[in-house]
Amino acid sequence: MTTLTLAQLNAADGAEFVRLLDGTYEHSPWIAEAAFARRPAGGFVSLAQLKHALVEAVRAAPETAKIGLIRAHPELAGKAMVARTLTAESTGEQRRAGLTDCTPEEFAKLHVLNAEYNRRFGWPFILAVRGPRGTGLTRQQIIDTFERRAHGTRDFEFAECLRNIHRIAEIRLSEKFGQPPRRGEQVWDWAEQLAQHSEPGFAEAGQLTVTYLTEAHQACARQLMAWMQAGGFDEVTLDAVGNVVGVYHAAAAAGGAQAPRLLTGSHYDTVRNAGKYDGRLGILVPMAAVRELAQRGERLPVTLEVVGFAEEEGQRYRATFQGSSALTGHFNPAWLDQVDAQGVSMREAMHAAGLPGTIEAIAALQRKASRYLGFVEIHIEQGPVLNDLDVPLGLVTSINGSARYRGEFIGVASHAGTTPMDRRRDAATAVAELALYAEARASADETSVATVGVLEVPGGSVNVVPGRCRFSLDLRAPTNAQRNAMVMDIKQHAERIAKRRRVTLKLEETMIASAAPSNRRWMQRWEAAVRALGLPLHSLTSGAGHDAMKLHEVMPQAMLFVRGGNAGISHNPLESVTADDAELAVQAFTHLITHLEIAP
């Protein structure tokens, strides 16, 4: 097949433009026609920009056109495949996924699922069967996804079908242009290989769980070190808390090992039954960038320090950000005496892993902030925003500050049948009212969020007015001022509820964390990197905590989000990133580190 080039596409008139992109979208030349109208005056600067123009053409189309696009696609392992009437592109994709070799039982299952799905939604089920890596999902993965999505809402499925159509088109375009996402594929493959290390009890169930200093955790550290060493890092070490540290020295003209440093990285521990990209993406993307630089013999204007932080999630011990806290000088000595569920202290776990287990060794890890230009982190979004917008990369303006509370309303338990409504002192309805207020208060602030994640009536009974109701509050906002204002309003409203409903309020603060606004100069550098790819700039806040929050305490920081698939779900096995989006992250990071201007 002749490889298409952007130069050809940019030189083409409208009819030729549509012809060159034939087969990208199934039986829908109108999409290429609309993208041609969006072609920049100087032409498309990247394949990513072309892809986005095609996506935007579909987003701008009326619903009837979108439904027509969905219906232009064949059923999976359906009649058209059996009759050999699919397009060449669809035939190849279904063949790669093994759908042409279904067993009779699998074919019957898909036939039933197709019929039920069409009956419910009125269009065929669409799935990019070549998957996030581009090499194909298994038949079982396809069936599992089919069954899961068959229970979705109409609006979600409509959008999800279109997202999968764009993924199909993306893979086809990469092949038309002969531009496979090699670095993104490397990142994706590394994530898969790292996920082979999981703890007993989870590994047997095919689940990913890696908590601090377990055997699986230590295996991950050894694997990261081996990849860094093979990838051309000049120094690779395991420090006193288990952080994996790789250093790539600056060009000799810039000072070599003595040059100013840029710090980057993320964590490699996980929650229980986790996804494969939370944290780890922020280690693997810089590793892929360094690997390519080393292969080309290219050095940077700064020394790059990539850290795989040993702990961020707080799963084994009641401590979070242990890895990054050691670098900022904020590791709490009391953590060493904490014990896990098996009674093993952190100090003992460190000794078992071959680490010193002393506060002196950990204190020595503190970085001299004046030596660093800043900290940048790449992270999967862990939310639905970029996925909903069909945008692969997002600029993080701030990591939300948060406040958590444990609360309880205490009223009087009484007979549900004999206590008049105006005589009740119902603790549960007091919490319900507070939860609704918190929801409204956060919504009014747009970028803030409020959650009542725990609501418990001790000893509750169907025929008893609740006399006690325990609850939790999790309040987050992009700035400390916004968080504090929301906290004050919700606490004051809780007191008003207690007074009006004649119940007692108990409220205890259990955690407070400061917001971490991104440094403006580093944000501009990320913006330049995203703009160089021809992608739109979309800014958003992070509702989740990250290692960048800790580094923010001692140096400038800025984050880049990468779109997550499956509605952006995270801390879940369905967490997903495509090789193409990982490729864009590598390209953006490479642009950032190769275009730094360092003042003398």
Automatic annotation (TrEMBL):
The keyword Hydrolase applies. This is N-carbamoyl-L-amino-acid hydrolase peptidase M20. Residues 10-173 form the Oxo-4-hydroxy-4-carboxy-5-ureidoimidazoline decarboxylase domain. Belongs to the peptidase M20 family. GO terms for molecular function: hydrolase activity, acting on carbon-nitrogen (but not peptide) bonds, in linear amidines; metal ion binding. It comes from Vitreoscilla filiformis. Signal peptide: none annotated. GO terms for biological process: allantoin metabolic process; purine nucleobase metabolic process; urate catabolic process. Pfam families: M20_dimer, OHCU_decarbox, Peptidase_M20. The keyword Hydrolase applies. Residues 399-500 form the Peptidase M20 dimerisation domain. CDD domains: M20_bAS. Keywords: Hydrolase, Manganese, Metal-binding, Purine metabolism. PANTHER family: ALLANTOATE DEIMINASE-RELATED. Homodimer. Its cofactor is Mn(2+).
